[in-house]
Design goal:
Layout lengths: L8 E5 L4 H11 L5 E5 L19 E4 L6 H8 L4 E4 L5 H6 L1 H21 L4 E7 L23 H20 L3 E6 L1 E3 L11 H12 L4 E3 L5 E2 L1 E3 H13 L5 E5 L5 E2 H11 L7 E3 L15 H7 L7 H22 L1
Parallel strand pairs: 1-2, 1-4, 2-3, 4-5, 5-6, 6-11, 7-10, 8-13
Antiparallel strand pairs: 9-12
Helix pairs in contact: 1-7, 2-4, 4-5, 6-8, 8-10
The protein binds nicotinamide-adenine-dinucleotide (NAD).
């Protein structure tokens, strides 16, 4: 496939974050002329960027994506944009006005600037949250989005539609990617859904019984972050435009099974303890149908849950050890 990235200038909003930092690492293998990272570090970190922050090709702009003057400077002369800066689902629920400014306002400004400066393609980070509790399992992209109940999911869907309308009105090429449950080294350690992996890793480290709330039957589709980064680059390299794709691992894993695998990869014989469910989770199942991305972008996830959890565990335990020593 033609290397469109070579010698090009690329903007990654949210590039200091969990997924964004892997996208930058993946992009650098294709010899871009410049990668600009726009991130206010509200969640991202310099640590996440340690493998490339000193690379002369990389320019880190520690600013807010809501600052339209800064945003314009970043977009002007740029060939491609990955738009990943966003608030998390629980942050949007806690502060919908800020969610509106970041997820909708800044995304609108970005789309307008991309059209103004004739950016060649935008890769937009959407989410499986747009489905709410899906109607079909595995879930294809054609499942309806009306069961989503969250501000975050609504904002992501609006973003997809925004880029769709800009393609129609101004010819701005884009691809939107609906990630399922992304996990891996550098992941958020206090998110609403994924934090369970981290809490269990703490139990394994401290030799305490891991807790399962409810019967552990809630399922998710866990996709490793390096696979998600590859899906992003595949979306840029391909000639496909004006499409939305699921990015999952196509394996449905219950929380109970997740814990079993986590214990196995860490050679732990801890016995889980069950507690009564204390919250109502409106999304009890997640399972992606990846056939569209496989057929059109030739992307398939390659990292199994066992491999991914082993890599995550290694990262987390090493990190904990470093923080213990530095105290
Ligand atoms: N992690 C997942 O499971 C998942 C699932 C579906 C979709 N997504 C989407 O993927 C993208 C990346 O997610 P992530 O998991 O890497 O999250 P993350 O929080 O690690 O990354 C988002 C980055 O955006 C930055 N940011 C937030 N608000 C900003 C602002 N106003 N100005 C500048 N920078 C700002 C943060 O500092 C952070 O580095 C997001 O758009 C997210 O909604 C993630």
């Amino acid at each position: 496939m033609h290397n469109k990235i070579k010698n090009s200038r690329i903007l990654v909003t949210g590039g200091a974050g969990f997924i964004g930092s892997y996208v930058v690492e993946e992009l650098l293998q294709y010899e871009p002329a410049k990668v600009i990272i726009l991130d206010n570090l509200i969640r991202g970190s310099i640590d996440n960027m340690s493998s490339f922050i000193h690379n002369p090709v990389v320019e880190f702009v520690e600013e807010d994506v809501r600052d339209i003057t800064i945003l314009e400077k970043c977009v002007e002369g740029t060939d491609y944009v990955f738009h990943m800066a966003a608030l998390r689902i629980n942050a949007c629920a806690a502060n919908p006005r800020e969610g509106f400014e970041v997820m909708l306002g800044a995304t609108f400004n970005l789309a307008e600037l991309c059209a103004k400066y004739k950016v060649k393609k935008v890769i937009y980070s959407s989410s499986a949250s747009v489905y709410g509790l899906a109607q079909h399992f595995p879930t294809p992209e054609t499942d309806n989005p009306y069961d989503n109940q969250t501000f975050y999911g609504g904002a992501k869907l609006w973003g997809e539609q925004l880029f769709r309308s800009f393609k129609f009105m101004y010819g701005l090429d884009y691809v939107a990617l609906r990630y399922f449950n992304v996990y891996g080294a550098r992941m958020d350690t206090d998110g609403k859904y994924t934090e369970v992996m981290i809490r269990w890793l703490d139990c394994i480290r401290e030799n305490r019984a891991p807790l399962i709330y409810g019967d552990g039957s809630t399922t998710m589709d866990f996709v490793y972050v390096r696979d998600v980064a590859k899906a992003n680059v595949a979306a840029l390299l391909s000639g496909v435009t004006d499409e939305v794709f699921n990015v999952g691992n196509c394996k449905e894993t219950s929380l109970k099974e997740l814990l079993e695998i986590l214990l196995k990869v860490n050679n732990s014989s801890l016995i889980p303890e069950h507690r009564e469910e204390n919250t109502v989770n409106p999304v009890s199942r997640r399972l992606a149908d990846n056939s569209k991305i496989r057929d059109l972008l030739h992307f398939e996830p390659t990292i199994s849950l066992e491999e991914g959890l082993a890599e995550l565990s290694k990262w987390y335990f090493e990190r904990k050890q470093e923080t213990t020593f530095s105290i």
